[in-house]
Each structure stands twice: as C-alpha cells, then as structure tokens.
Amino acid sequence: MAKLGRTFDAQDHDTEQQEYQKLPLGIYDLEMVASEVDEKDTGDIVLKGTLEVLAPEDFAGRKVFLNFNLQHSSAKAQEIGQQEFARLCRAIGETTVDDSEELHFKRFRAKIGIGKDSKEKNQDGTPKWPGREEIKKYFFPDTDEMPEVEILAPAAQQGGKPAERSSRQAETRQTSREDDRQEQRQQQTQKKRPWGK
Q1: Quick one: which of 3, 6, 8, 30 has the most CB atoms within 10 Å?
Q2: What is the Cα–Cα distance from 193 to 69, expressed in whole angstroms?
Q3: Over the stretch 89-123, which tens digit does the pLDDT of each residue have?
Q4: How far apart, in whole angstroms, are the C-alpha atoms of residue 20 and residue 9?
Q5: How far apart are CA 114 and CA 46, in angstroms?
Q6: What is the rounded average pLDDT of the residues 173-196?
Q7: Where do the DSSP E strands lie in 95-181?
C-alpha cells in the first residue's frame, strides 16, 4: 500500500478520454524534453529523443519521438542518422554536443509529417506498424528561411485533429507543463559548465 499524502477526489478532474490522433502536417515549434543513449550489443549507438510541441497551442504538449543512429553497422544508416542529428543541432543552434542534455529545453522550428507505413503486413493486409510522426524538415535560425508556425493540411487529411480540451483541463495541463519545464531548467542550469554553455 502507498499513501498519497492527501485525499484525491477523481470528481475534481475531467476524465473524458480522447482517442489518440496523429499530428497533422504542419510547421511546429518544439523542444527536446528527454533523451537517452542506447548502446546495443552489436556496437550500434542510438540516441532516442522525446520532443514536445510548444506551438501551435492546439497541439501543445503532444510528443514526437526520434531515433538517431549515431553509430551503426550499416554505413548508410549511420550517415543518415548523423546527418539528421546534425540538422537538429543546427536548428537548436548548437555546433558541438558532448551530452544530449545540452539540447534539452531549447526551442526550434520544424515541419512535421507522417512517415511511411511498415512494409511488413498483418494477416489482414494492414501495415504491422502505421506511419508515425516524424520531422520532415528542420528550419535553421542562421538562414532567412523561417516560416510561421501553421498547420499545412487539414487534420482529417492526415488522420488526426487536435483533441478537444475543456478550458480547465487545458489550464491545468499548461500550468503543469510550465512547472515541469521550470524545474528541469533549474536542474539543467545547475549542471551547466562554468562558462555558461
């Protein structure tokens, strides 16, 4: 048994459940909120990153997951992984990175779309793994090409739309996200190098 430390009243919270729907094609502001390095027995090294949507507001808080093959037995997979990671770093404004946490909580802009379904099929002919959200293009602050945040295709075309939220649910979620970000930034600041980078 685990004591909660206070009485929790489920009736104080919106419990309506929304069906998960993919993000529509669009230009989003994002930040990396978590990352981990996965070292395989084969010697492959994969950086797994969790991004959180900051804007547009209708989609704020949604997550996008990325994997970068930083070291791979396939030279082509490694080249693609390192190029994608370099694009993320440039979009964030970092040129050299020793620790993936250096990329956390730094806003950047990117175009998100849906990747291809897996070639492997279920018995009924449907894809074993449907396409998921992925970065189609990063926008770099050191160039003049910085489009506005916008949804480029209607949600229905992409198979998703923003989940309806009550104003209380949205406010609670926004406050919670801001509190979490503030706490993580404070932890990040404590870990920074003496010269501030």
Answers
A1: 30
A2: 27
A3: 999 999 999 999 999 999 999 999 998 888 888 89
A4: 25
A5: 21
A6: 54
A7: 108-114, 133-139, 150-151
Q: Show the tokens assigned to 105.
A: 């909580």
Q: Are 191 and 103 in contact (CB under 8 A)?
A: no
Dist CA 169 CA 178 (whole Å):
14
Q: Which residues of 64-101 are buried (b: 16+ CB within 10 A; e: fewer)?
A: bebebbbbbeeeeebeebeebbebbbbbbeeeeeeebb
Structure-derived torsion over alpha carbons of residues 23, 27, 33, 35, reported in degrees to the nearest 10: 80
Determine contact, residues 27/152, Cβ cutoff 8 Å: yes
- pTM here is 0.68
Domains of the chain (ranges plus CATH)? 20-115+123-154 (2.40.50)
Averaged pLDDT for residues 13-19? 77
pLDDT number for residue 3: 80
